[in-house]
Amino acid sequence: MDVTQTTAEGLKREFRVVVPASDLETRLNDRLARLKDQVRLNGFRPGKVPVGHLRKLYGRAVMAEAIEELVRETNAKIVTDNGFKLAMDPQVKMPEDKTELEGVVEGKSDLSYTVELEVVPAIELADFKGITLERLVAEIGQEEIQDALKRLADQNRPFTAKAEGAAAETGDRVTISFIGRIGGEPFEGGTGEDIQLVIGSGQFIPGFEDQVVGVKAGETRTVTVTFPENYMAENLAGKTAEFEVTAKTVEAPGEVAMDDDFAKKLGLESLAKLEEAIGERLKADYAAQSRQRVKRQLLDKLDELHKFEPPPTLVEEEFKSVWETVVSDLKSQNRSFADEGTDEEKAKAEYRGIADRRVRLGLVLAEIGEKNGIKVTDEEISRALVERARQYPGREQEVWDFYRKTPAALASVRAPIFEEKVVDYILELATVTDRSVPKDELFKDDEPAAA
């Protein structure tokens, strides 16, 4: 076998491989010899089928398998011998001439093909001990706990029936049934029975709740609304619908006493324990936000410290994924690039830059993990899968089986765990200084991270 490198441009590599017909013949005969002990043919005892007869029956199929195996082995050897890290699967180009290919399959001609590779560049990692970061932290005050407690009380506020003939007001809860029509015809999803609606909650599309104000129990009225242009159901977006609404009950909100009894209804033994639980939840929220902001700083630093040419194919794949999301989002919002203060050409350039950054940072994080033995354990993946399965009550086993049987889906679970472990590793080496800030500054809506 002769393997010759024919191209080395940037991260592209191309090799020409020539396999003598005699080598293919040897592989074919070896496979047929193994097949002899496996097949069962009428008229022959097990293991006694002549190889020549097997060749007549299965020669072409077995030769195709032999060639496929040889190509796979050769590609792996090229990668190993040259110490390549591949950015994509090898692209094999077989002879296009049918006569030439036929001669190879029949064992009469040498096999000559090319294999194209795109490799990951060597990455020189920075000294992470030289990275300095500022971690924003905010104290949780009693005011925040009381605000959260009030919201919890509002969500659990009792409602009692209003007097007969009383009209619904903003804040009241009405139980309604409705039938929606567009152009006089009912539409899918436009019917509801015994739906509870707190007027003013923004539960329904704009304009609906305002027209329910004043309704009385037992009353039927027509509510006319126009679906938003960016409504999630495209078949309804921008269309005007009439709803025939019947109020079953009208209830007024009651007061909630925030005391030990209220806490017990929520499963805690006292108000003090409830406030403590709220404080712990807020503490976790603040810690997550603090980490997210310091992680964003770290990724910016890694971006600055690692400038290299990423594999073009990976960048293109990432760009396509990002661009599809951008275009889809604009379409769902019925907006254009002009509405965003740009045009398509400028937007593409911007998002190509984002794709480039994401690929580079992904490669850098992978390199750090590999060089420092950072692994994601089966136990960590299992815990993450359990959390995902819990999001689909009643379908937990189905979700679990899907991820376990789908390598790409399982990789999507592993990737964020790996990334967080690598980030933890770097933060341990970097100099991180805490700075106390007000809650509003901690949760300030900065530009979203590009990776």
TrEMBL record:
Database matches in InterPro entries: PPIase_dom_sf, PPIase_FKBP_dom, Trig_fac, Trigger_fac_C, Trigger_fac_C_sf, Trigger_fac_ribosome-bd_bac, Trigger_fac_ribosome-bd_sf, Trigger_fact/SurA_dom_sf
Locations listed in the record: Cytoplasm
Domain PPIase FKBP-type intervals: 171-231
Top-rank EC class of the record's enzyme: isomerase
GO CC term (a single one): cytoplasm
KW Zinc-finger (keyword) present: no
Keyword Chaperone: yes
Biological process according to GO: 'de novo' cotranslational protein folding; cell division; protein transport; protein unfolding
Swiss-Prot/TrEMBL keywords: Cell cycle, Cell division, Chaperone, Cytoplasm, Isomerase, Rotamase
Chemical reaction(s) catalysed: [protein]-peptidylproline (omega=180) = [protein]-peptidylproline (omega=0)
EC number: 5.2.1.8
Primary localization class, coarse: cytoplasm
GO molecular function: peptidyl-prolyl cis-trans isomerase activity; protein folding chaperone; ribosome binding
Record text about domains: Consists of 3 domains; the N-terminus binds the ribosome, the middle domain has PPIase activity, while the C-terminus has intrinsic chaperone activity on its own.
Main function: Involved in protein export. Acts as a chaperone by maintaining the newly synthesized protein in an open conformation. Functions as a peptidyl-prolyl cis-trans isomerase.
Family of the protein in this entry: Belongs to the FKBP-type PPIase family. Tig subfamily.
Protein known as: Trigger factor
Species whose genome carries this gene: Rhodoplanes roseus
Gene: tig
